[in-house]
Amino acid sequence: MMNGAGHVDDLVGVYALGALPKAERAAVETHLAKCARCRELAADARSVVSALPLSADPVTPSPDCKRKLFERISAEPAAAPGSALRPASRSAGRTGQPASRPWGAQFVNAFRRLAPGLAAAGLVLALAFGAWSVSEHSRADQLQAQMTAQSAAMEEQRQMLGVLAAPDLRAHALTGSRAAPSAWGKLYVAPRQQEAVLMVYDLPPCPPGQVYEFWMVHDQTPVPMGTFTVDRSGAGHMILRAGASLASFQTGGVSIEPEGGNPSPTGEMVLASGQ
Amino acid sequence: MEREARPEELMIRVARGEKAALGELYDRFSGAALGLALRILKDRQSAEEVVQESFWRVWRRAQSYDPTKRFSTWLLTIVHNLAIDQVRRRGGLPPSIELDASTELASEIPDAEMDVPDRAWSGVVAVRVREAVARLPDAQRLVIEQAYFDGLTHQEIATRLGEPLGTIHTRARLGLQKLKEELDDLRETE
Asked: Which has more pLDDT, A57 or B23?
């Protein structure tokens, strides 16, 4: 099934279509975690498969379907969405008080997926399905490299989670400018810790030699807060430690600047908050 | 002017227990969900049950949803897996894909930029996707349809068509490649 180097080119089609039984699928995924080239082929195949539902005509369900769904939801105890914790705080959420704990739990999972590189996933798969690897020798080298990358990723995740789990967490929305109308983002601020996490989505990749830079307006002056780039899906993030000024965050934004950043914004604004 | 909330933003509200946000997602996507389920199951009642179950799972698993991934792909993967599971059981076949959380969540492997935009769920793009599939060489289209809409494994397809496994693999790969070319053209002319 696989060629000598273990590449899975010919399998990406059936893999993406879900036509591989569990064991073969796991073997392919173990390889994909280590091989950027095959990963790209698989991603292309998966994106086409995600369009296949469009080849089926949409059909409006009967009103009964929606009614039964919401009856089922209402019949559930107050703890609702997968949370076994704190039914009391969930109803507090409904009366308008921000429920930061359920938020934190949701983003814990989101940030696990944002960890740079696939090191974490690859490590788990490689260990769980070790019998499927191509050779013991190269596997040991791969695992070593993955563990190094993984500890850097885990440290970054730990820092992000430290912000998101803050009990006084506040969120500010950022919306796209005319230059990037579909972009959006959130600045999560933990005022007492004087730390924040910036998350952005749907930003186009920066032209070569340029980066995105985040600003906070303090005393009517934009203060540079750091630079970042985005991945293929247009998502990016940054951890900020800005001291007391974070607690009094009012407005800020993201602009395109030359690599290395600028002391004051000169480039096009793509995201802004405080609207 | 207020921008319509993105599905990914609505999911954040669903994770907080807001039924209205789930209702909004249901209103927007239940048609596509039922269309897919019907295509696979071919009977209305089972298909509607799958739609209901799928949105139920969206509600229950909202906290494990990754907001950086597209909601429609996640939802329709759930619908697809549930419908295929049923159609295989009906046909007396063993389950080929385990319906555990790892297959329902958008995987760690990022989707390419060509994720279908949500506004495509109605209208012109849908017609073009259908036409692109119909235009595929029969051999390739058959493999894709049997894999995706009938839920057969590569071995089952190979047995049914009396072809070697390698042939099935190649047809799937080439068929998807051809579709990608056609759909990429679509994006450029949009």
From this structure: B23
> Is residue A187 classed as helix, strand or coil in its secondary structure?
strand
Summarize chain A as % helix, strand, coil (round to 5).
45, 20, 35
Q: Which of A21, A43, A59 sits opposite B34 (nearest CB)?
A: A59
Round to whole Å and give the CA distance between B182 and B135: 10
Residues of B in contact with A175 (CB under 8 A): 3
pLDDT at res. A231: 82
**A83 to B63: CB separation less than 8 angstroms, yes or no:** yes
Query: Which residue among B3, B115, B130 places its CB closest to the CB of A47?
Result: B115
The model's pLDDT over A70-102, given as tens digits with 9 standing for 90+, comes to 999 998 754 444 443 333 333 333 333 333 334
Task: Give A263 to chain B, closest Cα distance, Å.
Answer: 30
The model's pTM = 0.56
For residue A226, count other CB atoms closer than 10 A to its CB.
16
Mean pLDDT of chain A: 74
